[in-house]
User: What shape does this take?
Amino acid sequence: MTALTLSTSGAPALRSDAIVIGVAQGAKGPVVAAGAEAVDQAYDGRLAGVLETLGASGAEGEVTKLPAPAGFKAPLVLAVGLGAEPAKDAGYSGEALRRAAGAAARALAGSRKAGFALPLADAADAGAVAEGALLGAYAFDAYKENGQGAKNGKDSKDGKDGKAKNGKAPLAEVALLGGKPRDKAYKAAVERAAAVSEELNRARDLINTPPNDLDPEAFAAVASAAGKEHGIKVQVLDEKALAKGGYGGILGVGAGSAAAPRLVKLSYTHPKAGKHLAFVGKGITYDSGGISLKPAGHNETMKCDMSGAAAVFAAVVAAARLGLKVNVTGWLALAENMPSGSATRPGDVLRMYSGKTVEVLNTDAEGRLVLADALWAASQEKPDAIVDVATLTGAMVLALGNRTFGVMANDDAFRSAIVEAAEEVGEESWPMPLPEHLRKGMDSPTADIANMGERMGGGLVAGLFLREFVGEGITWAHLDIAGPAFNESGPFGYTPKGGTGSSVRTLVRLAELTASGDLG
Assistant: This one.
């Protein structure tokens, strides 16, 4: 993990490999952002003109490198685009700062230390820059020669410098210039950013780990180890306990795999908590589709089908590390969906943990089956609210694209609160309905409900199915992160290629708002 410090040093005096400054798109060309005054002065006030000559415009994520001026201890100045210049009395948004810091950190891979002289109007800005830099510096090289990382929850560090043979080590240290290290608000903001970023990056590691090294048992072991480290109570139900308890959905999905399923419960409690949140995550460690086999071209990235469980796991640990005054329970519904002679067949009927029966019409609609059991288990504790997170449907990707997750709920105010929390932390989401007329499409002549309904609006149908397994009177929301969970294109801002950790920051913010009593 990249080290992070608040520094009182000026840009010229900081011993580092680079000084990062911000540049915005102004009406008449690039504009040097606040925080870079010393750098601009060293260029005799002509830095904006120099950057324009080099082709810089200030566009979001744009990176321009130039030699540092005489007298600087760092040899390089890196100017990163912040996007449009804000109005005179307005500052840069937290998301603009996060994305700029992330792009800069990624561009400085292989460097030992960089000073970030981006605009810091207050502690919140410091937290945003810190978070963006830590997330942008992320790299997954566990399987590269001389790389380092975690396999099966164990440290598999190879080599002495963590440098992959064909790549560069992540930026080792970030110094926030103008960060006020003695200011309690600044220190708290940076400490929060570090805790959330570290756990989000752990979720990314899990998502990126190949399924031959991360099956349900291995994921459960990672959760158990984290629980011991951070004072979280962890309970793991193995296949025998699941069978004894009647968890037909999880067992049905995992029936075709040699790797047995697990249901993991993580319980973080605070002695002064007044509310209880339950987070439920879909954890299909590999999804072949089962007997309803996915075609070639649709299964190569299905190691990411446990992204919901990874997000829930990361959010619970982050809540514990932050000491939030709210009880948070995480439920990880873990299984591997494989075809075999023992696999669930289309047409089979499963008896769920709730007692309801489900006719399985498509074994590739498996996520809702494991979630159904976990939702009902979570409901038995009667939390104040349940939020489930899942890479559930391709239909949601078609509706919202690759960067936005859908939010459904049985309470409009709660749905709005989640969308607002997501926006606050820089995650793109969109409220989606649960049209009652779509429920009829899941009627089954054989069972209480089928796991498939109308094809059009498939993401909404899945939400309606899950609603059937939420306890009466419990506020519930469903986050379908199928689009943003795994980035198959190039990196952007603080988002890497591969696992992204989508929804972790939204869940943490939801827990914070619940703890403070400010949840809308």
Q: What stands out?
A: Residues 427 and 506 are 7 Å apart (CA to CA). Residues 149-162 have pLDDT under 50 and may be disordered. The longest strand covers residues 276-287.
